[in-house]
């Protein structure tokens, strides 16, 4: 593809360093398309937004593109081409196979070649996925992806304060990130700041309420509140449960107290013991509570995975 572009458009390049070469968002025309798009894409992924002043969907899409590109922190360039003002260029590109008869059209260039494209106005989430895929193919990631990974690692390593700072930084860049909101709530729980976690939960955009990251974090917050009270009675519950091992109501309370004290594996095993003796007790209350633990801990958490394997073995044995 790059050789085809070179053959047809190379005559339009001045051979000089393109104006605004270091800029993240620029406009292009017949004179600088080769330099600012094709040649520039050999070092950085380039998105080209083909638009026109009369195009309503274009006016919706361009601000979304600009927002996502700015969030990419200079790792992707956006070049805007007004096809109405650059009809000769549009005609040339159309002859090379780009479907410019329908705009808005966004074309991704990498290493001098067309890598991917999409047509029509798209929501921010889809544009972000498109850019993330482009960066992945280019061997890079969005800065937000790096921040999220660092925040999750800090939380997993027990550095909740550091994690909270990173999640806050991520929320400044992406205020509608369910991963950032869920992580912030979990970090505040880990810092034993339930009121702050509750405040964060209340600030989550309503459209994210059903996202697994949010429902899981809120489940963790609810369990934290229940467990904090039960944990104060942990030793008493241990003794009572040991004296009455078949009192499943007591063992259910013990599981909550263990979870509240951070003893997840023992909490899960306490519920699994109930299931081994009577999986249908109280309409499956032990299984329901265990699944609630899984949601609160996170479905990829090591404690969840270990307990889930035991649950599967028990149910399907």
CATH architecture of the largest domain: 3-Layer(aba) Sandwich
Helix amount: 55-70%
Question: How many DSSP H or I helices?
Answer: 15
Given the C-alpha coordinates, what overall shape results? Answer: elongated
CATH topology of the largest domain: Glutaredoxin
Strand content range: 5-15%
Radius of gyration: 27 Å
For the record, the count of structural domains works out to 3
How many strands, what sense, and barrel or not for the largest sheet? 5 strands, mixed
CATH superfamily of the largest domain: Glutaredoxin
Order of secondary-structure elements: HEHEHEHEEHHHHHHHHHHH
Mean pLDDT over all positions = 88
Q: What structural class do the secondary elements suggest?
A: alpha/beta
CATH class value of the largest domain: Alpha Beta
Strand runs, count: 5
Tell me the distance between the termini.
57 Å
Q: Which strand order spans the largest sheet, edge to edge or round the barrel?
A: 1-3-2-4-5
Organism: Gluconobacter oxydans NBRC 3293
GO cellular component, one term: cytosol
Keywords: Disulfide bond, Electron transport, Redox-active center, Transport
Protein name: Thioredoxin
């Amino acid at each position: 593809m790059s050789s085809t572009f070179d053959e047809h458009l190379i005559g339009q390049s001045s051979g000089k360093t393109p104006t605004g070469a270091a800029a993240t968002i620029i406009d292009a025309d017949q004179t600088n398309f080769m330099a600012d798009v094709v040649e520039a894409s050999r070092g950085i992924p380039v998105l080209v937004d083909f638009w026109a002043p009369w195009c309503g969907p274009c006016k919706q899409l361009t601000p979304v593109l600009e927002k996502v590109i700015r969030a990419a922190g200079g790792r992707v360039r956006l070049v805007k081409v007004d096809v109405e003002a650059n009809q000769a260029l549009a005609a040339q590109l159309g002859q090379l196979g780009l479907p410019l008869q329908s705009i808005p059209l966004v074309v991704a260039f990498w290493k001098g070649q067309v890598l991917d494209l999409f047509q029509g106005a798209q929501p921010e989430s889809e544009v972000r996925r498109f850019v993330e895929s482009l960066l992945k193919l280019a061997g890079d990631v969005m800065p937000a992806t790096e921040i999220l990974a660092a925040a999750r690692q800090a939380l997993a390593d027990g550095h909740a304060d550091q994690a909270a700072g990173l999640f806050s930084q991520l929320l400044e860049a992406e205020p509608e990130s369910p991963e950032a909101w869920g992580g912030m709530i979990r970090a505040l729980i880990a810092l034993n700041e339930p009121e702050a976690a509750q405040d964060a939960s209340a600030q989550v955009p309503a459209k994210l309420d059903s996202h697994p990251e949010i429902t899981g974090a809120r489940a963790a917050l609810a369990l934290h509140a229940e467990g904090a009270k039960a944990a104060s009675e942990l030793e008493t519950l241990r003794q009572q449960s040991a004296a009455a091992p078949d009192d499943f109501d007591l063992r259910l309370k013990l599981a909550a107290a263990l979870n509240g004290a951070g003893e997840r594996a023992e909490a899960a095993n306490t519920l699994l013991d109930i299931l081994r003796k009577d999986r249908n007790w109280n309409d499956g209350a032990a299984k329901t509570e265990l699944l609630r633990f899984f949601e609160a801990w996170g479905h990829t958490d090591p404690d969840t995975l270990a307990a889930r394997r035991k649950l599967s073995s028990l149910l399907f044995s």
